[in-house]
Structure formats: structure tokens, C-alpha cells
Design goal:
Elements (H helix, E strand, L loop, with lengths): L6 H11 L4 E5 L4 E3 H16 L8 E4 L5 H13 L2 E4 L6 H11 L3 E4 L2 E2 L2 E2 H12 L2 E4 L27 E8 L5 E7 H15 L6 E4 L6 H13 L2 E4 L7 H6 L11 H12 L13 E3 L6 H10 L5 E5 L8 E2 L6 H6 L3 E2 L4 E5 L12 E6 L13 H4 L6 E9 L5 E6 L3 E4 L2 E4 H9 L4 E11 L3 E10 L8 H10 L10 E4 L13 H8 L2
Amino acid sequence: MVDGNRLWDLVENRAAASPGRTMLEDESGTTLTFGEYATRAERTAAGLVERGVREGTTVAWQLPTWIEAFVLVGALARLGARQVPLLPLYREREMRFVLTQTRAALLIVPGVWRGFDYAEQARKVTAETGCETLVCDRDLPETDAGALPPLAAVQHWPDDAPVRWVLYTSGTTSDPKGALHTDATLWAGAEANLTRLETTEDDFSPVMFPFTHVGGICGLIAQLRTGSRALLVDIFHPVHTPELLAGSDITMFAGGTAFALAFLNAQRQRPGTRLWPRVRACPGGAAPKPPELHHEVKREIGGVGIVSGYGLTEMPILSQNSIRDPDEKLAISEGRASPGVEIRAVSPDGEPLGAGEVGEICARGPMLCKGYLDSSLDAAAFEADGFFHTGDLGYLDEDGFVVITGRLKDVIIRKGENISAKEVEDVLYTHPSVADVAVIGLPDRDRGELCCAVVQCAAGEPPLDLEAMVTHCAGSGLMRQKIPERLELIDEIPRNASGKIVKFQLRERYAS
């Protein structure tokens, strides 16, 4: 493994150690070596300097999982800019909020991708925020790297590492929350993953989820540390993606339950032939999994099965299973605390609980973010002793393995992405046919959870139907990932004496 004090150190040191080794491939067959990556990142950094980017400049970007997105991350790391990666699913509401809160100086987007005009959306939003826009498809700005400013000095790594990342997550509030990360905190998250998986330069993994997710950035760090190879899939399709990868020499296919199910279904179409003969593990996480899925993957695809980890945007990979853990742990748990991490389950009054006792999972460790960009959110999330409230319910077993049983916060986790129920409810409530509404998550084998809107219709208005609901949400600027795929009409939304919606009753009613 190569070492260093920041992300750019890893880029340089890996390029020196493995200049001709392939780092990235994409679906078109384009490849990039570690040496080429460092060179292109420097040339792009120089091109961004000509557009006013300097150390500390806040740059938001919304590129798909392309080679160019990886190059952009390296370029911004070389300059010491503050990066704000945005999910490609973000639409006007989310983008307007993020650009206003971060005061980003520059927004980098593709033109038209997958039928959506990102450039037009960016122009519309930046006209209100004053942020500059740079439209880049496969043409990042590049120029001679000779005039690049010198690298900033590193002081007291990692404790005093500067904030270089604002990574947004949707929690219990209707607005996204910006978690402040340093290269050091993301490095710690990556380290937990690669050590438990025992990743080496011989590993080859597809990147099938948005690179702008915290897992994408941690994955890049792991690649640079180990010299492993990645195949970039710009958008995952449950049928076409496994077909694309059939017969390839991938060793791990990382992702959540939806990815594992897709690969398992593809394997079942060709019984008797191992489609991925070199697969040694299926790293999991991001969404609940049926315990039996681990055994199915191990038996039918091969390797050690699903090796789950647990983390949040605020604290990536705070626990992780090992490829050497027994099946009974791999099937139901999210592994043991990552190096340097302390985890405890606490009662509603904050008292630590014993092994097997269910409470809120709280943790502290080197991958924990430095707080939120909106510091008013910190008091509710962080204790004075440094423990972070995850909002998830679970327990630690007698061996220290973390088992997640539910959530305190009202969030639907659909294909590994958080959906704030309140945000969707607020949008639906503006429809004239809606008198009252509750948005709930329901168990779903393919998605982890699906998003269901339960609506009490307004008197005198036509009943809401699924098509009208989807049109209304899309027209309100809600990103596609958050639009409910199920609608249920009810005579009256159940509420308790204090006026709060009794959502567990709705979940029980509609779960079947």
C-alpha cells in the first residue's frame, strides 16, 4: 500500500509506484492508468485555475460515474479546493438549497445525460445563487500543469486536517444536511473497508452506484492505497449490468441488497456455470438485507458471500465484517467496530445498554465528520464526549458485532439512498386533492424499502391517482429517487392525542 498525508499525496505516490497499471475502465472500453490519472488531474487542475479555482474555493459538481469525475476529484484535491459532490438525481430544490448554503463559487455539470438537461437546470438555479457554471461532458478543462501553484503545507495530520468536503445526506429534516469531512476522515472510512476485505492490487470491482456518494470517494481512496482496478458503470440496470459483467474477472461487486439480488438473478439464468469465477466477496451495506441472501450468494455465486458494513455520510464504515467472519455473523450483522471506533447502543435517556439490548446506535471514531455546515444541527447529533447519534436502532451482540433492527428517524432507505418522509409529505400536501398525507417506507426485496404515500383526499376534489401524484412531485422539482412508487388512499390519517401521525399502524396495514 502507498501512504501519504492527504488525497493528492496518494495520487502522486500511487502514480510513482504503479504508473502503467490500469486504474479505471468504463463501459466503452476506455482505460486510464494510475500514471495517466495523475497527469490528467494536474492538467485539469491547471485548467480550473484559469477559471478562478484556488485553495479553499468551494466547487460543487454533479457528474455521473465517469472517468472524468474521478479526474475532477484529483484536480480539485491538487488545488486544495472544497468539494461538494452532488448526486445526479438532485433536482432544482436540492441544488438550490446546497448552492445557497455552501456559497459555491463554481458548479460543474454535464450537458444532457440520460435524457435530462443538467446544463439548463444549472443555468436556472445559478441565476438565483450567483454561482458560475461550467458544463463538461467528456471535456474537462485542461492546460499545461507547469504554472500550477505550489502544494499547501500539511500541518499536524490528521487532527488539524482542513475541511475539504461537504457531503450531503437527507435525514429527518426536509432539507439535506451537509457533513464536513477532511481527507483524513474519509481516509479512515476507506481504511476500515479495505483492511477487513483484505483488498490488494489484484482486486477488480465495478463501481455501480453514484461516484458522488460518500462510498464513491472512499472507494477512490482505497484504490489509490492498494492499486486495485475499477470498472465504471454510469448507471446500474438490474438486467443489463450483470450481463455486461458476465464472464469478467471481477473479484468483488460492491453495493447493497439490490445489486446482490441482480447478480444472483443473472447467475440463476445460467445454472451450472459460474459467471464470475474470480469473485471472492460481495461487500454489502446501505440497505437492509434478508439473512438468507448471504447464504444464496455464497452458494450460487461463490466466494465468502455478503460481507456487510455499516456507515452513514457523517461516519462512513463505522463497522465492517471481515471475509474471515463465520456465516452466522455475515448473514445477520454489519460487522464489528472499525479500527479506532467505539460503538454503543443507548436507551432513550442515553444510558449505555448491554449485549443484545436494543437501543439507538451511537459511535465515535476517526471517520466521523467534523460537524454539519449548519452548525445549529450539531447539538442534536453530537454528544459532548464525541459520540454521534446515528438515529438507527440496533444492538451489539456478545462478540461485538453490530445488528441493525430499525430506525428512530423517519427516513425511507431506498436502494441505499435516504428519502426524508417530511420533504415528500410537504410536496404532496400542496396538491389540491390532498387533505392529509403520510409517507412511509415498506419492505421491498429489490429496493430494501419502497416509498409509499398514504393520502387522505380533500373533500370536493377528484381523488388523487398515481399518475397525477408522480406528475405533481416531478413538477415541484422533487428528484426522481424521492417520488413514491406506491399510493394508498385512506379515509382518515391516524393520529395520536398530540396530533402526531401513527405511522407504525400504516406500515402494518400496507406491508402486505
